[in-house]
Each structure stands twice: as structure tokens, then as C-alpha cells.
Amino acid sequence: MTELVVHRAGVVLVQDAGRAGQAAIGVGRSGAADQSAYALGNRLVGNRPGAASLEVLLGELELEATATSWLCVTGAPAPLSVDGRTEPAGTVVALRAGQRLRLGTPAAGVRSYLSVRGGLDVPPVLGSRAHDTLAGIGPGPVEAGARLPLGDDGAEAIRVEAVPAATYDPSPVLRVVRGPRDDWIADAERLVAETWTVAPDSDRVGLRLAGARLALRDPDRQLPSEGAVRGAIQVPPSGEPVVLGPDHPVTGGYPVVGVVVDRDTDRLAQLRPGETVRFRWE
Predict the structure, then answer these.
(1) For strand 173-178 and strand 276-281, is the pairing parallel, antiparallel, or unpaired?
(2) N or C: which end of the chain has fewer CB within 10 A?
(3) Cα gap 264→253, rounded to integer Å
(4) pLDDT at residue 176, rounded to an integer
(5) According to the model, what pLDDT value does residue 73 have?
(6) InterPro entries this protein is in (predicted)?
(7) Cα–Cα distances in Å, from 208 out to 173, 212, 245, 251?
(8) Hey, which residues does 194 pair with through a beta bridge?
(9) Are 64 and 5 in contact (CB under 8 A)?
(10) Which residues pair with 57 in a beta bridge?
(11) Which SS3 state, helix, strand or coil, does residue 200 take?
(12) What b/e sequence results for 119-156 when a residue is b if at least 16 CB atoms lie within 10 Å of its CB, and e otherwise?
């Protein structure tokens, strides 16, 4: 059995396309925060859709293969080397038995995806190998000393050897549609008028925004808990918006002023604390 042996790891999670269809039992979808970068990596190494990969936060990963393996890194363009030889991000590389692959800190973006031909064959939970940080289910965080077996999700020949490294706008403008409770907000137009700063306590559950406060029309009014979706922009009593991420709860009790369109939610996953973002109505 071919394995990836982890020698050093920062914040590294196993992720796949997520566990859809479990909201009725209180379990969200989770999965890769940047779905397009994750899916691209699997296509590059010839995997079937949904194969498990590694989601690496700000680099800091070192591993070796026990047999020849084909890998690539997509998403945040982390510096990549094999036994000290530099390789560009987005390139499919062969990692021979005993060779070590190292990822450094990307200059832009937050999350890189390391995909390997065959996918990671860790035990699934409720039909998915994704680690849900809120529910605490799925494979645990990857740590030094872990041995990750490879599966048989490789389905196609590797046809593309490299793609351009990802680039990110320093201050993106993301599209939003009006939320179901925008009338609960006295100044809902401030959502698109302000420039928001990503707060340091942002995570996979939610992207916290600072820089302005949205006022509730009636701060004492109570909202029954209702279904929540990725990209929903909730307004808690503090008035500072929170954009729900891939590990969001399945219900929420704060009014939703807007929802980031699905095509733009991947960009949220690559925003760093201190960076800015604006919104516009779709």
C-alpha cells in the first residue's frame, strides 16, 4: 500500500466535496473551502470527482511517499520543492519513494490544496472524508507522524502537466443577493457601500468582518432559528457581519442581510485577516 508519510504539518485538514444531504440530522456539508481549487487539483492528477485531498492553511507541510506518487498543488500558490528542487505551483510532479515534498507559505491567498493520484483513503464518516471543524466529525487534523494511505480514485490518464498559478485581487468585489431578513436591518445599503476588513478570528465556520456596524431596526426582536447556507451574511447584535463558511451551522438565529452568490464563495476562502472586501448587489 502506498502512503504519504507526514513529517511536518501546520494546520492541515483532509477535505473532499463534502457530505451533502445530512442537514436533517444537524450535520452540515463542510468540504473544501475553495471548491474550484480543490476540484482543479483532482482533475490535474486524473482523479474521480470527490477524491479526498489535503487543505493546507498558509503552507507548512512536509511529507514523503513510500512509492512513486503523482501530486499537484492548487489554490494559494505555496512555494513547492521536492528534495530541495523548486517546482512551480499548479504543476503535476512525481514524488519518488523516499523523496520529500515541502510546502512553504504562499505570498497570496490562504488555502492550498495538495491532490494526489488515487486520493487519500482515510475512513469516511457519513459518506465523506471531510473534516468538519464545527461538528468535530471526519478525519482529525493531520499531524506530524501521520501515514495517509492512497486510494484508487484515479480514473483518467494525466493529460495536463501544469496550469497557471492562482492570482487574487487584493481587494475583491463580491456579488450578493438580498437576504430573507434584509428588512430587519435599518441600514442594509451599508453592506454594499462600505469596505470591510477581514477580522483575525475568521475561520472555516465564518468570515468575520470589521470596519462598520449594521444597525438592527429592533435590537430586542427575536428571530426563530432558521436554515442557513454557505455565503449567508448574518448580522449579530454587535452589528459586525459574519459571512458563513463551509463549516457553518445548519441553522442560525441572526438575520441574514444578504447572501454571497455561490460562484463567489470560493474567493472568500482565500481572504486573509487584514485584507479588505466589498460587496455589490447582483
Answers:
(1) parallel
(2) N
(3) 24
(4) 98
(5) 97
(6) CT_A_B, Cyclophilin-like_dom_sf, PxpC
(7) 16, 12, 10, 18
(8) none
(9) yes
(10) 11, 111
(11) coil
(12) bbbbeebeebbbbbbbbebbbeebeeebebebbebbee
pLDDT in tens, 149-177: 999 988 777 777 789 999 999 899 999 99
Cell numbers 463567489: residue: 264
The label of the residue with cell 431578513 reads 181
Which of 127, 144, 183, 132 lies closest to 61 in space, CA to CA?
144
Nearest 10 degrees: Cα torsion 129, 208, 165, 130: 0
Q: What are the pLDDT digits (tens) for 258-278?
A: 999 999 999 999 999 999 999
Question: What per-residue confidence (pLDDT) applies to 162?
Answer: 81
C-alpha span between 224 and 217 (Å, rounded): 16
Whole-number average pLDDT of the chain = 95
Contact 61, 29 (CB under 8 A): no
Instruction: Return d(Cα 64, Cα 83) in angstroms, integer.
Output: 10
Q: How many CB atoms lie within 10 A of CB 75?
A: 31
Calpha distance 143→93 (Å, rounded): 23
C-alpha cell at 203: 475561520
Confidence of residue 19 (pLDDT cuts 50, 70, 90): very high
Contact at 8 Å (CB) between 49 and 42? yes
95: Cα separation from own chain's centroid: 25
Q: How confident is the model at residue 96 (pLDDT cuts 50, 70, 90)?
A: very high
Amino acid at 99: Q
